[in-house]
User: Which sequence fits this backbone?
């Protein structure tokens, strides 16, 4: 057990957990805080959506920049950009300035996310195919997602700027362990790449059918998961007008707790189950959970559907990140994680619009077919992508 713990990339895992924890205890409360300061709903929507949009636009160029500088320099700079953005949220209510701070935050995220995933997936001392670091990172992210909002609710009780100031200061303080950690110097790339080389590698990974399949599954997963707070929530509000909001809160809480707890079981079973089997099992869990949700008319059946969906995510979510890294060469990982993040951002934007449109046409029939098509496509792409890939 001690040897297994020793082989884990403790520093990048811990760093990413703290960064995600801060993001989860601050970002969800930005809407409430800005609304309490009389910022319009439309402006708030633009401010919150800007970082994801900036990450999507910059993702293509982030790989080139990452290859020009050291791991430490990019990690440190990206976190300082994020700190500037979050500190800025608490300093002004002017829309233009808030939008500038959102752009700065988005730039930081565009470089931080693919780089930290590259570092975590690359630090395998004895086994280059070891899936545990990425599995553990996924679990820690979900743990941050479960604990963070509770911390934020306590800090932001009076709708203050404290969550944003605290997160900004945490990101600044984290510069110290990053600069003192010598191990990051040993995780690098062969040579700085020119822009033309990055262009060639971009063409190369987009000709890599395995990579395209797995990021397509990632896109589908995001489209699916954005339905929970959007079309699923509206469906509950329609069928249970008096308790729709409370039931949605129970549903989301049950699913988050399931992912956080069940992911530990998945990590234990991971070496005993092939990825192909885990894809198949996750598809059935998603299918059963969605059908159960559509038929749910009581809190027990709703929570049961949340548990099934959470179990499905526990199998599928971390495998996608693992396979993104496995489907390309080590030098291509930053670009691959940038592209997969971009696909996730597209799903984040498209999912709610698509789901709500289908819901407006008639929930029972159309959402059912949407789920069937999405999950069947996800299964098909997953199985083809990993044909011959065994445990």
Assistant:
């Amino acid at each position: 057990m001690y040897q297994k713990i020793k082989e884990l990339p403790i520093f990048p895992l811990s760093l990413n957990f703290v960064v995600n924890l801060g993001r989860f205890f601050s970002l969800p409360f930005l809407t409430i805080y800005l609304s309490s300061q009389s910022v319009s709903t439309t402006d708030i929507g633009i401010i919150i959506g800007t970082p994801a949009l900036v990450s999507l636009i910059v993702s293509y160029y982030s790989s080139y920049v990452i290859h020009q500088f050291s791991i430490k320099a990019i990690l440190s700079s990206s976190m300082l950009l994020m700190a500037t953005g979050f500190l800025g949220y608490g300093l002004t209510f002017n829309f233009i300035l808030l939008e500038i701070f959102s752009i700065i935050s988005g730039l930081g995220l565009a470089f931080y996310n693919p780089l930290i995933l590259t570092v975590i997936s690359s630090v395998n001392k004895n086994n280059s195919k070891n899936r545990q670091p990425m599995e553990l990172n996924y679990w820690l992210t979900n743990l941050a997602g479960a604990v963070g909002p509770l911390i934020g609710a306590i800090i932001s009780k009076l709708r203050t700027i404290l969550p944003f100031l605290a997160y900004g200061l945490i990101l600044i303080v984290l510069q110290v362990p990053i600069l003192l950690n010598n191990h990051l110097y040993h995780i690098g790339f062969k040579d700085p790449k020119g822009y033309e080389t990055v262009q060639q590698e971009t063409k190369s990974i987009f000709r890599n059918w395995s990579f395209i399949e797995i990021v397509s599954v990632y896109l589908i997963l995001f489209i699916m998961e954005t339905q929970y707070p959007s079309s699923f929530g509206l469906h509950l509000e329609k069928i249970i007008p008096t308790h729709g909001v409370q039931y949605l809160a129970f549903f989301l809480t049950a699913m988050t707790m399931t992912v956080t707890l069940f992911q530990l079981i998945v990590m234990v079973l991971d070496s005993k189950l092939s990825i192909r089997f885990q894809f198949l099992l996750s598809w059935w869990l998603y299918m059963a959970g969605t059908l159960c949700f559509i038929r749910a008319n009581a809190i027990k059946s709703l929570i049961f559907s949340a548990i099934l969906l959470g179990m499905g995510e526990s199998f599928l979510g971390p495998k996608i990140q693992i396979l993104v890294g496995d489907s390309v060469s080590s030098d291509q990982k930053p670009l691959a994680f940038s592209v997969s993040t971009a696909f996730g951002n597209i799903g984040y934007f498209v999912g709610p619009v698509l789901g709500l449109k289908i819901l407006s046409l008639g929930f029972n029939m159309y959402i059912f077919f949407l789920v069937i098509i999405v999950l069947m496509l996800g299964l098909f792409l997953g199985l083809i992508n990993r044909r011959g890939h065994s445990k």
Remarks:
- Residues 333-361 form the longest helix (29 residues).
- The chain has a mean pLDDT of 77.
